[in-house]
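pasting for the record
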Amino acid sequence: MIRIITSLVAVLTVASLQSQTTLRETPKLVIGITIDQLRGDYIELFQKTFTERGFKRLLNEGLVYQNMSFDFPNLNEASSIATIYTGTLPFRHGITDSKIYLSNKGMDVAIFQDDKFLGNYTSDKLSPARLNTGTITDELKTASQGNSDIYTFAPNSFQAIVTAGHFGDGAYWVEDYTGKWATSTYYKDLYWTVEQDNKRNVFSNQSSSLTWQPLLPVEQYNAFPYRDPSKIFSYQYGQYTNPYPYLKQSPYVNENITQTALTLLQRNEMGKRMSPDFLALTYYAGDYSSTSKGDYSLEVQDIYARLDRELAALFDQVEKTVGLQNTLIFVTSTGYYDSNSRYPDNLKTEPGTFYPKRCEALLNMYLMAVYGKEQWVERYHNRQIYLNRKLIESKGISLEEIQNKAAEFIVQFTGVQDAVTSLQLLTGKASSEMMPYRNALNKEQSGDIFMEIQPGYQIVYEENNGSQTSTKIHRSVAITCPVIFFGNNIKPTKVKRTIRATEIAPTVCRLLRIRAPYAADDEPLPEFL
């Protein structure tokens, strides 16, 4: 009997030790990398231009999910990042776009505009007040009782603010008119290394001398057979009165983010304290808008090649200072691609053209014929129609009635596939094809009519005088959107199934051993359970 008990104790002890050794240690540092418009097919196509330490290292050593879905239409750079960091959809977190239309002001404003706070190195007044739910970083700050340091760097304000959440120590973005790192007085900390970078940064102080040319010999950029590779691009930023909007779509913005973030990481000694720290970085991998080349360009291949070197520099430095085994890195795409391509002029036919301004004007004329000569339509914004709610209420007209009439009229327009009202979405009366728009609806910010434009149509934006400002081809094809977890002793794995964007936040929180954000409904990804 004694031998049996002794053997049983030994077996239980070994099992206990094995479970302890397989339990992953809580990371000392989390680095969340969001790459705006990252495409999984491009990572595959451009591999010959990559080093072994950047994208290839992620693919070879990380847990790679092939694709991610966002479960709502009209995806953009603001709504996607908010969904990743909150674990819920725009219907709850409230971030539908980087700009919203405010009826009381009759104008578009930045989604995070807040006059209660001032800007540092910017005239913009911003705060995360319109972010309706908590984020990964909020939960980490709460769990650590304020001891975790949270810093974020991004090309644009809304990207930095979303990832910093409500409790971040510092959120920094590239100011549109000076190129310096800007922030809001909402955040307590303008870290001294960031202020130093503002004084000596090449990006802001020497932009006139910057020239973007191919990093590699152009014959290596051979992923696309649709462009003449002999036409080497060269962009000299000294020619622009304000070069920074263009620089923010170039590889230089990614280089700037990496250098400034690594300096703060080292000086602040992030990842070397008891409570985990969080560094959020947003990179750019989209189209370069100053060229009409659109898709298949040498520029986009060069952006990926240079971004690969930035990732390699980041990983190598983290490995030296914190240790990859102590660091959880997750890399996500924003799940859309904002193509700059147009139909060539020599094509005889095209699907068609949709003019938002004309749609807005004709709808108002129709409603005037029905309800009287008033300004019933306030604005077309982001494929939505905003009606004059105050006028409708003052005239005692049923909101449901006028919304229905407006939708019935709009759906007859050439190029409009379908239209649905906000009340139909909220009450579940919309068709099954249009119900996903409910996930993208925010009661305080969204319009009265949601429009689905037929794929392939060109959307032509005009000024009030009829002059054309821009043209976009509407595409509904989703891009391959990879998600990669790396470091923290994660075993290399390839997962081919499509995961949901709302599963990222619960998963990261699980690895940090903290609660998921309070609006997150999904469980952590099963590979981490």
